[in-house]
Amino acid sequence: QVQLVESGGGLVQAGGSLRLSCAASGRTFSGYDVGWFRQAPGKEREFVAAIRRSGGTIYSLDSVKDRFSISRNNADNTVSLQMNSLKPEDTAVYYCAADQRFGTPRTLVSGYEYWGQGTQVTVSS
Asked: Average model confidence (pLDDT) for the chain?
């Protein structure tokens, strides 16, 4: 079992940047695919980005692809989400998730077995 802890959230003005980090403990992170999701008040949790154990990346089809970047450091057991040009609509609780099964959908909530507690990101206009 792996435990996940997110950090790096906060309050930022529109156009600013934040770097979220997901730290894993309990197991070596290198054997897991890791995803970032977000959930705004009153909305469903939505996929943002994922990075496979191979290093391959997946981004959601909306505008985050050109503004967000996901990366991993297996030596430190961390996965980061660099968020640039933030917009008020990016305001949400951001969650990281991890899974080591093969063949499960990495863009869906159901594709991950382990979840962190989330970190709040608030973008003011």
From this structure: 94
Report the alpha-carbon distance of residue 64 to residue 82 in Å, rounded.
10
> What is the residue whose two structure tokens read 């802890």?
5
42: left (phi over 0), alpha (psi -120 to 50) or beta: left
Report CA-CA distances (Å) from 7 to 33, 41, 81, 120. Answer: 19, 20, 10, 9
- What does residue 90 show for φ and ψ, rounded to 5 degrees? -85, -5
The three-class DSSP label of residue 18 is: strand
What is the amino acid identity at position 78? T
User: What count of Cα atoms within 13 Å lies in the side-chain half-sphere of residue 90?
Assistant: 30
Q: List, for the chain, all residue ranges whose pLDDT scores fall below the cut of 70.
A: 63
At residue 103, the pLDDT reads 85
Measured distance CA(53)–CA(118) in Å, rounded = 22
CB 68 within 8 A of CB 92: no
DSSP secondary-structure letter at 64? G
